[in-house]
Amino acid sequence: MPTLSKLLQNNRTWAQSVTQEDPTFFDKLSQQQSPEYLWIGCSDSRVPANQITGLMPGEVFVHRNIANMVVHTDLNLLSVLQYAVEVLKVKHIIVCGHYGCGGVRAALNNQPLGLIDNWLRHIQDVEAFHINELKPLEGEAKCDRMCELNVIAQAENLRRTSVLGDAWKRGQSVEIHSWIYSLKDGHIRTLQDAIKEQ
Length: 198
Ligand code: CO
What we know:
- The protein has about 200 residues and is of the alpha/beta class.
- It is built from nine helices and five strands.
- It has two domains: about 1-30, no CATH class; about 35-190, Beta-carbonic Anhydrase, Chain A (3-Layer(aba) Sandwich).
- About 50% of the residues lie in helices and about 15% in strands.
- Strands 2-1-3-4-5 form a five-stranded mixed beta sheet.
- Strand 1 (about 35-40), helix 3 (about 50-55) and strand 2 (about 60-65) form a beta-alpha-beta unit.
- The mean pLDDT is about 95.
- It binds cobalt (II) ion (CO).
């Protein structure tokens, strides 16, 4: 398996260079993590949270799924969210979508793809909600606007979770940010003001 052995070799080279910069790096990190950020992003391989924000291991807690969705019955996401807010006490939750998202495009095209169709239904709910705004748009422009609307909808879903409601009731300071990443220039843009209360 030459490809996989290459990955393991890369890993050793990376660990070595990190240790050279800071000999105590792994010792410190193995004791505890205290990230200030929770990242909820798309699984797309072109949108790696740490790399595009210049954050090191230990600095961002990450949850990724297809099309950066916040589904109220998703125990996986809710568990990540609860742990991030109540144990790690992150100060910022970032929902980061990206233009040209395959999940969003598939939802718009409404072609049957199998099991994933059930996941994409949640994106189609967002589409239905904004149908008047989306109707005159076509092609990439429509897909790009849907990618933006989807981020805003998922940030709103986050705002309404019991985890954030409870945190804000306790007086805990935690903000929700709505970001979108461009595959074309590598830039992240902010879509709306931070959400700070329920
Ligand atoms: Co995507």
